[in-house]
Amino acid sequence: MRILLRRQNEAGLANARGIDSRARCALLLVFTFLPVILLWGCAGIVGGQNSSPASQNPQTYTISGTITPVTGGSGATVKLSGAASGTTTANTSGAFMFSGLANGTYTITPSQAGYTFTPTSLNVTINGANVTAGVNFTATAQNQTYSISGTITPAAGGSGATLTLSGAASGTTTANTSGAFTFSGLANGIYTITPSHAGYTFSPSSASVTINGANITSGLSFTATAQTYSISGTISPTAGGSGATVTLSGAGSATTTTNSSGSYTFTGLSNGTYAVTPSNTGYTFSPTSQTATINGANVTNLNFTATPQVSQTYSISGTVSPTAGGSGATITLSGAGNATTLASSSGSYTFTGLSNGVYTVTPSNAGYTFSPTNQSVTVNGSNVANVNFTATAQQPHTVGLSWVASTSSVVGYNVYRSTVNGGPYSIMNGSLISGLSYTDTTVQNGVLYYYVVTAVDGSGNESAYSNQASANIP
Fold first, then answer.
1. Are the CB atoms for 92 and 76 separated by under 8 Å?
2. Strand, helix or coil at 48?
3. Does the structural domain 229-308 have CATH classification 2.60.40.10?
4. How many CB atoms lie within 10 A of CB 345?
5. pLDDT digits (tens, 9 = 90+) for 188-201
6. For residue 128, what is the DSSP state?
7. In this structure, CATH architecture of domain 63-141
8. How many CA atoms lie less than 13 Å away from 283 in the CB half-sphere?
């Protein structure tokens, strides 16, 4: 139709060359409108011929990509917007996919608590094919950090326990005296907490904790159970070992009797340092006692040798002077043998019936100090005399305090004392002091004391502390 019209127009224009200019203008106007009208009619016909069935299904496509590293990508939320919208979660490798998408322009935006992403989002255009390249993001951990805290009970097993952190980060810390512990400065992730303490087992033995944008402050607790151990040994020969008494002291105390072979055992013991001392009438022992330290294992082969005592015995004697401090003084003997005696009215004392060995002699008397405080004495086949001491009377001291009366109406005063400059202070008087003075009779030699006073009104209101006063006891 267009070709036919074009020929007609050309023929008309050829014939018009002999017409005047006014006629040509009119013809040109007519021929200008005519093709427009005819073309419009043809376009309508073509549009009808090219129409397609409405039931045809459109082709769909996918968009896929990856978030790295996997610590920030795994579990990240990925949102789709634009020509269509949706949400998916990246797998453990940080990969994600949107499917069933028509042609169009989309925006992909990742998010994950504790991470930022580069780029923050990407625009993707589907045009007749899946998009499988270039839709990638990099996750960067944010500076925000968190803490994990918990408790080990009872405090006996928790205090001083070591806590080990592993997983997304590693470290160690020590529980305080209440068994509480904290790990701080931690990023989002999965952690394992494992407690340990010599002499204890823990339930659970470890715990897994996940930080996801918040501190972990509850639910993390362990129970410590004390392990117990034994100390064992033998006293030989059996003549001196059989039926011997063995005494345990130190971190725990107990007494047991050796069997017919001279063997002994103490059980149910916790970690600590112990002293084991054997005794049997008519025998001395080498060594006289032994120290055993339990630290997460049984102690074995703590052995002694028994030697029959010789019938010959000896004495240790001396004097405590002056008699004012010596008379009636208590003298204690320890070491190869144990005994106590009182000095006579002249300050003299004697220990008899002693076998050879090393002894310690220690005097004591209320109100006195002694020089030397004790003496080591070795008995070796003869009596030991002149184990003397000098007694010095302790000088009693008091501190007198006085103060200016309060300008307000008060019913009394309180006196406070401390051995630390600036307190904390402890109250000294049992009831309000009505006067303006107080005498402290409970001071000890060689101590520096600090005092403050407060005023109390009729309603029981107490003033602030006064200025501090000090007293140095010689």
1. no
2. helix
3. yes
4. 10
5. 999 999 999 988 99
6. S
7. Sandwich (2.60)
8. 24
Cite the DSSP H helix spans in 16-131: 21-49, 70-73
Alpha-carbon dihedral 49, 50, 56, 60, rounded to 10 degrees: 180
Global confidence as pTM: 0.32
Kindly report the CATH number that applies to the domain delimited by 314-393. 2.60.40.10
Contact call for residues 401 and 437 (beta carbons, < 8 A)? yes
Structure tokens at 181: 């512990």
- Helix 2-15 with 21-49: angle, nearest 10 deg: 180
The tokens describing 387, both together, are 């184990």
Which CATH code fits 399-472?
Answer: 2.60.40.10
Place of tokens 């074009």: 6
Which CATH homologous superfamily contains domain 146-226?
Immunoglobulins (2.60.40.10)
pLDDT digits (tens, 9 = 90+) for 368-418: 999 999 999 999 989 999 999 999 988 788 999 999 999 999 999 999 999
Q: How many CB atoms lie within 10 A of CB 331?
A: 25
Neighbours of 342 (CB within 10 A): 12
CA gap 408, 241 in Å, rounded: 79
The H or E element that residue 160 is part of is none
Q: Is the dihedral of CA 140, 144, 145, 146 positive or negative?
A: negative
CA distance 164 to 243: 49
C-alpha Rg value of the chain to the nearest Å = 50
* CA distances, 19 to each of 13, 23, 223 (Å): 10, 6, 117
Round to whole Å and give the CA distance between 49 and 56. Answer: 17
